[in-house]
Each structure stands twice: as C-alpha cells, then as structure tokens.
Specification:
The complex is a heterodimer of chains A (282) and B (557). By secondary structure, chain A is α/β, with parallel strands linked by helices. In chain A, 33% of the residues lie in helices and 24% in strands. Chain A is built from 10 helices and 10 strands. Chain A is globular. Chain B has 557 residues and is of the alpha+beta class. Chain B folds into 3 domains: 76 residues, SH3 type barrels, CATH 2.30.30; 97 residues; 252 residues, MetI-like fold, CATH 1.10.3720.10. In chain B, 60% of the residues lie in helices and 14% in strands. Chain B starts with a helix and ends with a helix. The C terminus of chain B is likely disordered. Classes of the chains: A alpha/beta (282), B alpha+beta (557). Chains A and B meet through helix 2, helix 3 and helix 6 of A and helix 12 and helix 13 of B. The structure holds adenosine-5'-triphosphate (ATP) and magnesium ion. Adenosine-5'-triphosphate (ATP) binds next to helix 1 of chain A.
C-alpha cells in the first residue's frame, strides 16, 4: 500500500455535506444539528503524530462509525472527545473540538462534567470488581446521588436499556466480573448510559463478542440512537454498514473520507476507501 | 550410568536444588520452634524431685535433694585441671546438673554431681516443692505448720491442711495485688495529676495575681477525698498483710530446719505423688500463670504478661501509624507525583531505607522524636511536670512511631506494587464516567489495592514484632510499674514506658543474676514471641485473604 492512493489533502472535503436523504427516521428540525465539531485537530504522542488535520462534525441522534486499519488513530480520536487524552502525559493536542459550540479543551472546562456528557465504552469490557448493581450505580454515586430509590430506578432503567435486565435481575448483587464477555460489554454500556450522557463513544464494542452478543449490541445501538448521539469504532465493515448513518474512513491519522454510510460503502469517492472496504487493504 | 548432559539440560538438577533449599528452610523453621518448645515448655512440667546420696571417693556422704536439670559428658582432662581427682582410666565422665533450689540456705540454685559419685537415688513421696515469691524454689519436707507463732498439732492429713491454708493465702495475695496495682495505683495517679493541675494553675498566673480560691478549694477537696480513699486502702492493706503473715511453714531440708512464711509461697506441690493427669493440670496451670502474670524476682520468675501486652499493643499502634502514612506516601508517589528523576530518587531512597540497620532508627527516634519533638511537647503542654519528662523520654508512643518509620518502606513498596497491578482500563473506566481522580482513587483503586496494602502491613508487623534494638532506646524497660492501658483517664497512656518480649528475652537471658535458673524462661519467652508474631501475622493474612476473595476475579483478567 503506498501513499499514491491517498488524496493530497484528505482533510479538505470532510465536512459533512448537507443532509440528503435521511438514512433513517430521525427527529428533524433544529435538533438535527451538529453536536460535535472537530476543527483541524492534530495530536502527537511525543514526536509521533497520531492525528493530522482532522475536521469532522457529528450529527445529533445519529450513529457515526469510524473505520480504518489498525493504528490509524480511531481510538486516539475517540479519546479526545472526552479528554481521556489528558491521561497520556506525552500527548499534545493542537486544534479544537466543540461540543454544542463549546470547546472541550478550554482550560475552564470541568473535565468530569464533560465526561458525564460524553460516555465511553472501551475496546475491552472493563467492569469494576463490584456488584452488577454498583457497577451501574457508580456514575451516579460519584455525582453524590445516593438515594436508594433513585439508584434502584436508574439501575433498572439502564440495564433494561442495555438489554441486560432480564438476564441479571435476580443476581444484581453478584460481581460484575461473573458475567460473560457479552454480558459484561452490555453492563459497561448500561453503566455508561446510566449517567445519561449526550454522546456515547463505543470503541469496537463487539470485538470480543460472539455473533449473537454482537447482534444484541447492534440492536442496542439501534435503540439508543433515538436518544443519544453515538460514535462507534469498528473493524467490521458489515457492522458499520448496518448500524451507522455516517461513516468516516481514517488512514494514518487522517480522515480520508466522510459521508453517508450508503455513499461511502457503495460509491466511495477515494480510492483508498474503496481498497479498504473491498478488502484489498490489510 | 545415566548420560549426564541430557539430565542437566532437562533442568532436573535445578529442581532438586530448589527442593533441597525449601526442605532446608522448613527444617530450620521447625527446628527453631522445636528447640524453643522443648527447652521452654519442659520447664513447667512437674519433674520428679529426687534425693541423692553422694560421696566422693573416700569422702563422707552428702544428701542432695532436687530436680535433675540436665546431664552431660565432659572430657575428664578438663575436670582434672579443675582439681577433681579420679582414676586415670576414665577419659569421659558423665555428670549431672541438679537443681537444688534453696538459694537462701546454700547461696546457689544448682550443683554439679559426677555420676560415679552417686551412691543412691530415690523419689520419696513426701518431698515438697515450693514456688516462692523470694529466693526461688524450695525443696524439702514439711515438718509442721505454725499459726500465729504456735505450732499446730500434727494433722491427720497434713497435705490437705497445707492446701487449705495455701488457698487462703492465695486469695489474700490476689486481693493485695489488686489493691496495690489497681486501686492504690489509680489513687496515686490521680493525686499526681491533681498536683500537676495545681502547679499549672500557679504557673499560668501573671505576677501579683492570686490563684482563684474556688479552683484551689476544688482541688483541695478532691485531694482530701483521694487521700481518704488512700488511707482506707492502706488500712485494708495493713490488715491483709497481717492476715497473710499468720501462717508459717516448718520445713526440713538437708538436715536443717527452716521456717518459711506461707505468705511467700506461691504454690506447693509434691511431684513424686502426681499421676500424669494431675501433672497435666499442674503443667497447664503453670503455663497459664506464665502468660497471665507479671514477673517476679527481677524477671527471673513469674510470668511475662506485661511484656506480651506491651509487644502486642506496640505492634498494633505501629500498624495504626504506619498504614496511613505508608499508603499516603505510596499513593502520592504512584498516582500524583510526576514521574521523573526526582520520584526515581525518592523511590530508591525508600528502598534503601528498608536496609538501614534498625538501631539507627532507634538513634533517630531518640534524638528526634524523644528529645526534640517530645521535649517540645513537654514544654508546650506538660510544663507543670517539668523537669520530670512526660513525652520527653522514651515511651509507647515514640516506640510505635519509631517502628512505624522503620517499617514504612515495606508498606510503601508493596502498596505501590498493589497500585501498579490495577489495570489501566479500570482507572479509565472510572474517569470516563465522570469520576475525578480522587473519586477514582477512593472508590476503585484503593479498595482494589487493599490486598497489596495489607501485604505491606503484614511484612511490617512481622518486622516490628521482632525488633528489639531500637526499642531499647525509645521506651522499652526491663520492668514497667504499670501497663500502658488501664482504667484511668485517658486510658491509653502513650507516654508510659512498657515491657517487650524481645527485650525481656535479652534481659532475662543475659542480664539476670541467675542465668541458669532463668534459661528455660528465655526459651519459653522466645517461643511466645514467635507465636505472637505468628498470630499477629495470621490475623493480617486472614484479613487480606478476605479482601482478595472479594476481588478474586480481578487477577484472572
Ligand atoms: N499512549 C500512547 N503512546 C504513544 N503512542 C500511542 C499511544 N496510544 C496510541 N499510540 C499510537 O498512536 C497511533 C494510533 O493509535 P490508536 O490506538 O488510535 O489506533 P486505532 O486506530 O485505535 O487502532 P486499533 O484499530 O488497532 O485499535 C498508533 O500508531 C499507536 O502506536
Ligand atoms: Mg483502537
């Protein structure tokens, strides 16, 4: 694979075109604006640049998927949205991300407040070594919500929303680590939505799951998009095609192509995208 | 023959070597415990009392009464040099160390007897052993009992009579102890506090100002109340002492007749008549007395309770100090400090601190804690007691703090290890839910690191329980007048000096006037120290295992 397949400046045309045929029933009107705007984002790990001139906008109540070869910077970009990038000491960011018009990198931003609005589900399920109940209630407890009734209600609601309630309702006090991998993944999704964020970032949520659990998570994404804005990273082309409204293809730290999922998959503008989608790329 | 090369390549020699090392360590550990147990615990067994008739070649006969302490074979040449004469033909001779007791009569507790000089050995039923509050054990025969100076007519059952009177004396002595240690001690303590209170009232005055009459009157009233209580106790003690001195035993030993006040007798038994069941009862009774009673006769007799108490209390206090300190330091180093050459330097220093000889910590504790900090505290808060120091001399508090300092590196190191074992994904999971770093630390990381923290505390306890050298400088004494925990406000007296098993071993074994007699106590005390260390450790390990159970699945991840 050589650089020749790549356009000279892939960042040029990555601003999402005006919505054409809405891919799915979504609330129209003013709600349907750009929730997140990434403006010329560059990121370095030490001297190595991991993101270059990323420009993107993410629509509210839509599912956007990031695809691209391993190491192209999908996770890195995702972790900028909730500023988990802060945790890497040698990481340096130039550029900006706006959430509802407000910069997330501004010094006055309360990071924990931001992370409550931008929930994240990680590549590998990481439930806490606590009971299922406490796992889901965790985000509420750190907000100082300790009222049993509120917690009970929220836990049930979040577990139902994550399609896990029926499987665990009789064993809420068991450790979250006793669940199967697929259940754990849904548990951490429930944990993330329990704090009612605006955005949910899903980093390869199905990479460790069997087909049935994968299906469940995909159904879940379909349900959640009614209330949340979802960004999902995946290596599975079919999955991206199935669940997402928009797709961004990333390559070596750049967003090469970004558009309607249908368009990206059936009629990619860039050669690199086509190669990757058709499997001619590793 | 087996070809050597493949055998070596298979790694089998290494496995054998490792197994041998493990076996050797096990043998050593059990050997230590076995030695301590046999040497120490045998002492409490009611060994038979023997009557030996001994005569040197051509010399006149002597009668010796006592318990066989140990026997050994020695080089004949050595004895000849020492002036003992016997035939040339013998090269090695057997000799016995007989514990003859009766130090008040003979001036010594033990006698060496050459086996060849023994003419006869017997175990008469009527030989009596007396455990006394003074002069060690007594061996002899009961000749009679005097009550108020009057010799009682021979009873039908002299042993029953003796037991009955002994029981009465034991009851009286228990009451006396209770009065002297408890009530009188408490009154004295409160009187002293009153005195200091009055002093501080007077010292706090501006020149020319007079002490408020009310305050003085209150103190005076309280003092006279205490004084009245004190007088009451003194009177009671007086009658008790008169009572306890009523009976005296008439004993014969080695042909002489002695009178022994029954009030000095702690226990009396006739080992030669005991069945093994009675022997067992007696045995465990004496072991219990050993662990539950204070020492007597410059620590060479009696129990070691204050030392056990002091050791355990000191270790517990040490854990209370070292755990938060060590954990805070480790958390700061691992979670908050920017990792760089400075943190590396600090970490290296901490590791090295673990290797500093403990006496150095003792010197530091004395020079800094006791003199500087303690002296400062005294000047600030205990001004009225000066020049006699309160915190300005060694005590429980400084000893615990010194040991906390000594064991802090262990806690820091293993806490840091526990912290670094926690997967990053879990921290990020918590942070991603909007928890701050502090909340993440408090709710997730510390609970999960707690097994690691407790491992550190276990190691700290193990080290602190066995440490003696630094303690000698900062608060351990051979004989403490009072326990550091009692019923007088503020109950836990951190400023008091205390006794410690380790130091007790050193003191009894090497500083006591009667080394041979005290030697079994050294072994028994050492055994107890090992057991207590073990117990403290087991408690901590049990706690850790329960926590581990909680986060068990974590390690599988
Ligand atoms: N903490 C870090 N320190 C240094 N370099 C990093 C760090 N995290 C990621 N990188 C580098 O940044 C680049 C992008 O990594 P990133 O994890 O974003 O890839 P990805 O697209 O998520 O890959 P995958 O599909 O395999 O998860 C990689 O080259 C990676 O080596
Ligand atoms: Mg990734």
């Amino acid at each position: 694979m050589s650089e020749a397949h790549l356009p000279e400046d892939p960042s040029g045309d990555t601003e999402l075109p005006e919505e054409t045929a809405a891919p799915s029933p979504a609330p129209e009107s003013s709600r349907n604006e750009h929730l997140i705007r990434v403006r010329d984002l560059n990121l370095w790990y030490g001297n190595q640049q991991a993101l270059e001139h990323v420009d993107l906008s993410i629509r509210r109540h839509r599912v956007t998927s990031f695809i691209g070869p391993s190491g192209c910077g999908k996770t890195t970009l995702l972790r900028c949205f909730n500023r988990l990038s802060d945790l890497v000491p040698e990481c340096r960011v130039v550029g900006d991300i706006e959430l509802e018009g407000e910069s997330v990198f501004a010094p006055e931003v309360d990071v924990s407040q931001l992370r409550r609005q931008v929930g994240m589900v990680f590549q590998k399920p990481n439930p806490f070594p606590k009971s299922i109940y406490e796992n889901v209630a965790y985000g509420l407890r750190v907000q100082g919500i300790n009222k049993r009734r509120t917690l009970d209600d929220t836990v049930e609601w979040a577990l139902r929303a994550a399609a896990l309630w029926d499987e665990v309702k009789d064993r809420l006090e068991d450790s979250g680590l006793t669940l199967s991998g697929g259940q754990q993944q849904r548990l951490v999704i429930a944990r993330a939505i329990a704090v009612q964020p605006k955005v949910i970032l899903l980093d390869e949520p199905c990479s460790a799951l069997d087909p049935i659990s994968t299906l469940k998570v995909e159904e879940l994404i379909q349900q959640l998009r009614e209330q949340y804005t979802i960004i999902v990273v995946t290596h599975n082309m079919q999955q991206a095609a199935r669940v997402s409204d928009y797709t961004a293809f990333m390559y070596m730290g750049r967003v090469v192509e970004y558009g309607d999922t249908d368009q990206v998959f059936t009629n990619p503008r860039e050669k690199a995208t086509e190669d990757y989608i058709t499997g001619r790329y590793g | 023959m087996k070809p050597l090369k493949p055998w070596i390549a298979s790694g089998a020699p290494w496995i054998w070597l490792q197994a041998a090392a493990v076996a050797l360590s096990l043998v050593l550990v059990f050997g230590v415990i076995f030695l301590l147990a046999t040497r120490g615990l045998a002492h409490f067994w009611p060994a038979p009392v023997e009557e030996w008739v001994v005569a040197e070649d051509g010399g006149e006969q002597r009668v010796l009464v006592g318990q066989l302490h140990r026997s050994e074979r020695v080089d004949a040449e050595r004895l000849r040099e020492a002036g003992v004469t016997f035939p040339e033909s013998e090269r090695r001779v057997l000799r016995h160390l007989l514990k003859t007791g009766n130090r008040d009569l003979t001036g010594q507790d033990f006698t060496w007897v050459l086996d060849r000089e023994i003419r006869s050995r017997a175990r008469p039923d009527n030989l009596l052993v007396l455990d006394r509050t003074r002069w060690g054990d007594f061996y002899g025969r009961l000749a009679g009992i005097r009550e108020d100076g009057i010799l009682l007519p021979p009873a039908d059952n002299p042993w029953g009579e003796l037991d009955q009177r002994l029981e009465r004396v034991q009851g009286l002595r228990a009451r006396i102890d209770e009065l002297e240690r408890g009530e009188v001690g408490s009154v004295n303590y409160r009187l002293e506090r009153l005195r200091l209170e009055e002093l501080s009232l007077r010292q706090g005055l501006a020149p020319g100002e007079a002490v408020s009459r009310d305050a003085l009157a209150k103190i005076e009233a309280e003092r006279s109340e205490l004084q009245a209580a004190f007088d009451g106790f003194s009177a009671e003690l007086g009658t008790l002492y008169a009572e306890i001195g009523r009976d005296r035993l008439l004993m014969t030993a080695g042909g002489t007749e002695v009178e022994i006040p029954l009030g000095e007798v702690v226990d009396a038994w006739r080992p030669n008549t005991m069945t093994w069941r009675e022997g067992l009862v007696h045995y465990f009774g004496r072991i219990w007395a050993f662990v539950s009673e204070p020492p007597r006769e410059a620590n060479t007799a009696g129990g070691i309770f204050p030392a056990i108490f002091g050791t355990v209390l000191m270790v517990l206090l040490m854990s209370v100090f070292v755990t938060p300190l060590g954990v805070l330091a480790a958390v700061y180093l691992h979670e908050y400090a920017t990792q760089g050459w400075l943190t590396r330097l600090v970490r290296i220093s901490v590791h090295n601190l673990a290797g500093v000889p403990s006496i150095v910590y003792g010197v530091f504790g004395l020079g800094f804690f006791v003199y500087v900090v303690g002296g400062g505290i005294d000047r600030l808060f205990f001004d009225e007691a000066l020049p006699s120091p309160t915190f300005g001399s060694g005590g429980l508090f400084w000893a615990s703090l010194t040991l906390a300092l000594l064991t802090m590196p262990v806690v820091i190191v293993s806490t840091e290890e526990g912290l670094s074992r926690i997967p990053r994904a879990l921290r990020e999971g918590s942070l991603a839910l909007g928890a701050t770093r502090w909340e993440t630390l408090w709710r997730t990381i510390l609970p999960m690191a707690s097994p690691g923290i407790l491992t550190g505390v276990i190691l700290a306890v193990a080290r602190a329980a066995g440490e003696v050298a630094p303690l000698m400088l900062v608060g351990v004494v051979k004989m403490a007048p009072a326990l550091p925990l009692d019923g007088d406000f503020p109950f836990l007296h951190l400023d008091r000096k205390f006794m410690h098993l380790g130091f007790h071993i050193y003191d009894v074994g090497f500083q006591s006037p009667n080394v041979e007699a005290a030697r079994p106590l050294v072994y028994a005390t050492a055994l107890l120290l090992v057991l207590i260390t073990l117990l403290l450790n087991l408690a901590a390990i049990g706690m850790r295992n329960r926590l581990r159970e909680r986060y068990r699945s974590l390690e599988a991840q």
